[in-house]
Each structure stands twice: as structure tokens, then as C-alpha cells.
Amino acid sequence: MAESFKYNGNKGQGGELHQKAGDDYPTMTTAQGCPVHDDQNSLKAGTRGPTTMEDHVMREKIFHFDHERIPERVVHARGYGAHGYFETYESLSDITCADIFQTKGKKTPVFTRFSTVAGNQGSPDLARDVRGFAVKFYTQEGNWDLVGNNIPVFFIQDAIKFPDLIHSAKQEPDRGFPQAQTAHDNFWDFCSLSPESTHMLMWAMSDRAIPRSFRFMEGFGVHTFKLINAKGEMKYVKFHWKPKQGLQSVVWNEALKINGADPDFHRRDLWNAILAGDFPEWELGMQVFDQEFADNFEFDVLDATKLIPEEQVPVKIVGKMVLNKVVDNFFAETEQVAFCTQNIVPGIDFTNDPLLQGRNFSYLDTQLKRLGSTNFTHLPINAPKCPMRHFQQDGHMAMHNPKGRANYEPNSWAGDENNPRACPEHGFKSHHEEVMGEKVRHRSETFADHYSQARQFYISQTETEQMHMRDAFAFELSKVEHLPIRERMVSHLLNVDKSLAEGVAEALGLAEMPEPAEAAMSTRDDLPASDALSILKNAPQTFKGRKLGILVSDDLDGSILENVTAALDSEGAMYEVVAPQIGGVTCDKGKKVDAQQKVDGGPSVLYDAVLLLVSEKGANMLAEKPEAKDFVSDAFAHNKFIGYTQSALPLIKATGLESKMDDGFINLENVSADEFVGSLRNIRFWQR
Ligand code: HDE
């Protein structure tokens, strides 16, 4: 007798016992649980006859397939999520009664989704774009969603402009392109007509918009929020995420090539790091300030196009987030997760930032469209992990259906677990704030300075970063076909920094310099540089979590390979062997070396640094291969460190770089493997 098998997929009532389909496979069933005997042939009248209507197996299979897609997110469609936890460093009970911040060492589960903004779901990861950084904390007093970005300011000051901003950034409506890029007329038309976007444009044209990976970027709550303590006292707060891995970006030419070589570069990176046990961590920081600071600050703290420099209000580190588990199912978790800015918990509250207020409407609304039912909160990824009792009921796909008679309030059916009441002591209380004023459609005068912080951001960058920004503006505007838009944009840049504007104008070949844009307020030149705004000034000084690409051939020097890989292991770094053929090579000691990539599938843009470990014969052979020459010349052009041995010189020569070999080329015959890995801690050789 065949042994019985317990089907462990959809758990129906009463359990399902089917006979096992084979030693290793359970029996396939329909969604109704009916065992299927053949799912590769439809039911036909005769082997060559028409398919019958009664084929419930086929009809159900195709019906379900036809409805697999749900609307993608209108923005942030392309994203990648992971699970983890947040750990509180110290009790913050003096400033907030939020459950997660009460006890030192408390761990709260989280789900985090990173995303690009403009591209559709299948767009490449390395688009020049803002990155979403959304965290759902499953706290003991409800879900708190900190739905942030990797840039601390935003393009617009009022939510009513959001549909216009996004329409302008996404594909143009007549032609349906370009995809996942802002280098087109509509975007720059909108921005150049909305001077409030200038500060954010500085960030978007900086290296922040082409991060090396999600693991190497900061996150920001952007808006000013409120913290409320048990006594009802209020402080303002801005939230920051600081990657313990350090900050790192790629260069633009590299980004373009990564998009071709591996459009999933960022999601693959996160997946691989977590599976390798190299769990990425971010520390949560708070800039906490009071009403007096807000009243005296140069800008309005309700204006999301402004930040507060860390030098003015230091970031207090309050805990860390560790992402340590990839999803089991992309759709169920990453796609169905529904972030809502209005998911807030006692101890945290909103401010009147008009962008935040609009977001509070938009997120709930969009989830209904996307997930199709008010019951999206019943999906495991969205459901709170604390008790949840209310009288909301029914609706499509209701999964949370309490027993009992009480479904209204007030009622007199006491003593029932499913008969909750509001709790005056512990319930969420909005911070009391006096609000009065005329009903107006006016932008506050305090929001009027659009250029001063843009200038502050620019002067805070290193020369290399400033050059990247000039190039980015020039690249994007070069794709704008309508010349007045280019000029209008340069006229705004003139209000930010003259040399930036001139550099961009020159790269665009503008015949004449336009007049500076008319400004509601003139640019302040008294705001000092803020080092915290630069990536390179805060370089990580570690190669941990980074990856070396090792280009090999037969007869490579096996002892160097062994020493370098051992040094990388002790640094906590990764490597991949790139060989002329995927079967790998044999080293000079006769040992087999496995390859993870074939040279045309593993270009150097996928690595943080490269090592050319080839025999002379191998170098001569690779010198004939364009993809091997690109491996070297791209690494050079992208300011990467290039390790080599004398025998690699024929390949280097073939790329024309022999006369340009600088200190970024490191000869492994002259330095130890540890010293080589030590140099890699500088990440890039920017002097080049
Ligand atoms: Fe969003 N935004 N947003 N946004 N946003 C969405 O919600 C919206 C803004 C951000 O991984 C949508 O579930 C408005 C700022 C992230 O699932 C939508 C305004 C910041 C994500 C929406 C903004 C963000 C979204 C689309 C102007 C940084 C992805 C799908 C007032 C602080 C979350 C969805 C995820 C997603 C509306 C501006 C961050 C339509 C109206 C500022 C990280 O509701």
C-alpha cells in the first residue's frame, strides 16, 4: 500500500491526505484540493480534437495565471526587500513613549524594502534615481512604517505637486519612453519651472543617485516628525539610517555598463550578502530638537526641501537594524508589502509638513488599488505582530474574522476577548497643538529660499564629487532636446554656484550664458560646508563586504591566489574568479581553480577592484579578446585598484595603459597580499 502524504501547501480545514506522487514529490492538486493526474495535457475530444469546457484543471490553471499580476506601484515599482530586526541601544523614555525605544537591547522585527523611484518593475537597478528606503517595524504597539529615501530632502514642498513631478519623471505619455531615467525634456521642464526642486536636484545629480548597492547607502525619514513622551511633552525629530558598511557609489559610466551586464545588480548584491551571512546593518540616528531651535533655524522645519546640517544638530545614534533573512517568496513579501506613512505608534507623531500630510492620504489609497481590498492588512507581511482587535469586518478576502456576537460599540456583551474598547491611557493620542488660520492655498513665505541649501550641498563635496555632479547635469541636459529648458536650468544653477553653472553651460555648448533665474530670495553664502553631506569625506576605510574580481588564465600563480583570497577572507570581503572559460583553469601548481564567471559575463564593472592573475601565455591570449581588454580598461577608467603581476603586462599593454600605470596599479610581486587588500580599503584611486 502506498504511504499517505500530508500535503503541506494551502492548509484546508480538516487536513488533506493524498497519496504521494513519487518518492520525492507530493501530489499536485487544484486550488480546490482535487488531486491532478496529468497537468501537461488538456482534456480533448480525441487526441487531435477540440478541448472540452469541462477541463476544470486547465481552466483553473489558466484562469489563475491570467490574474497573476497586480498593478505595480505607481512609483517605487522596482524594489527589493529583506527581513531583520531593530535593536535599541538605550532607553529613550525621556523623549518618547514609543514601545520600541523603551528598553535597552529590545529587539523589534522589521521588513525593509529598497527601491528606485521612476522605473517600472523590470527596469535596471543602476538608474540614476533616488532610492526608496522603507522600513516596517512590527512593534508591540502596532506597525510603525518609516517610509524614507536615501536622500534627506525632496523635489517639492507640497503634495499636490506630486502627480506632476512623477508624470514628468516617468516615460513621456506619447512615446512611452525613456524608461527609468530623468534625462529627458519633461523632467527638466518641470524642474526648471519649479525652483523648489533645485536642492534635491543637486543630490540627484550627485553620486548618491548611483549607489554601489543598497548596503552602502544612507536612509532618511526626510520630514520632521514629533516624539512624544509619557508626560505628553513634544520634541521634533529627523530620522537617519547610517550604513555600518560605509557609504559607496559607482561612477556614471560604470552604472550604464552594470545595467547591461547585470540589471539586477542591487537585488543580487543584497540577496548574496545575506545568504553569505554578511548581514548588512544600519544604525538609526535621530536629530532631536525643540520648538526654540525650530523657531530660530534658518529654514522652516516643515519644508521637506531643507535639511538640518548634522553640524548644527548632531545625529544621536539610538539603535541598529540588521537585515538577516531574505524573503521566501518575492511576491508575497516584497511585492505585497504595503507601507503607509500613517502607520504610526504612540510616542511618534506627524508634523504639518504639507508633503507628509499629503502622503498620509496617498499611501492607504494606493494600497487599496494595488492590493485590491481593504483587507491588505490581513496579509502576513502587513499584519501587525501584536494583538489586534477592532470592529472592522468583511470585505474582499477577509482572513481575520473574529468569533462572537459583538461587532459594534457601545455594546453590553462584556467578557469577550473579541469585544475591545478604546484605552484612554495607552491609546495613540495626537499631540495637542493649537491650529488656526485662514483657509488658503498659499505657500508659506518661510519656504521661499530655494537655492541656499543647494549651494551648501555643492560646496560640501570634494572636487571629484563636484566634477561628477557637473558631468551628471551636462549628461542629463544633453538629452533635453528643447534648448530653452537647458538654458532655464543653467539659470537656476547660476543661483547655486557660478563655476558649476559655467561648467555645465560649457559642456552643453551654450552660446550665451543666461541671466540667473529670478529668485524669491537671494542665495545665502554664509552657510558653511557640511562634511557629513559628502560621500568621499566619509569614506569607509574597509574592503569588508566588497568584491574583488580576479581575472585568471591557466598557469596563474597559485600561491598569490591563495594568499590574496586568505587576506580577503580575513577582511570579510568577497571575490569572484573570472576565467576565459567557465570550467575554470589550472594554476601553476597543477591545482584546479573554479571560475564563477566567464570573462564576457563578468566584466570589471561588477567588482570593486580587480586582480590580473594570468600567466604570460594567458595574458597574450586574453590580449586578443575585446572583453578581456574592456575588463582592464574599464577598471582603469572607473578609478579602480588593479592588482597585477609582471606576466599580465601583455594584456595591460594591449589596452594602451602601460604608460599610464599609476599608484592604483599594485604589483603583487612587490607587496604582500595583506598590503594589497589594505590598499583596497581606499575603495577607489580617485587621484587618477
Ligand atoms: Fe512616496 N509613494 N510619495 N515618497 N514613497 C509611494 O506608495 C507619495 C515621498 C516612498 O517600498 C506610493 O505603496 C506622495 C517622499 C517610498 O513599497 C504612493 C508623495 C518619500 C515608497 C506614494 C510622496 C517617499 C513610496 C506608491 C508626495 C521619502 C516605496 C506605492 C507628497 C520620504 C515604498 C506605494 C515601498 C511609495 C506617494 C513623496 C518615499 C503613491 C503623494 C518625500 C520609499 O503612495
Automatic annotation (TrEMBL):
The keyword Heme applies. Heme binds at R73, R113, F162, R359, Y363, R370. GO terms for cellular component: cytosol. Keywords: Heme, Hydrogen peroxide, Iron, Metal-binding, Oxidoreductase, Peroxidase. It comes from Alteromonas australica. It comes from the Bacteria. It catalyses: 2 H2O2 = O2 + 2 H2O. This is Catalase.
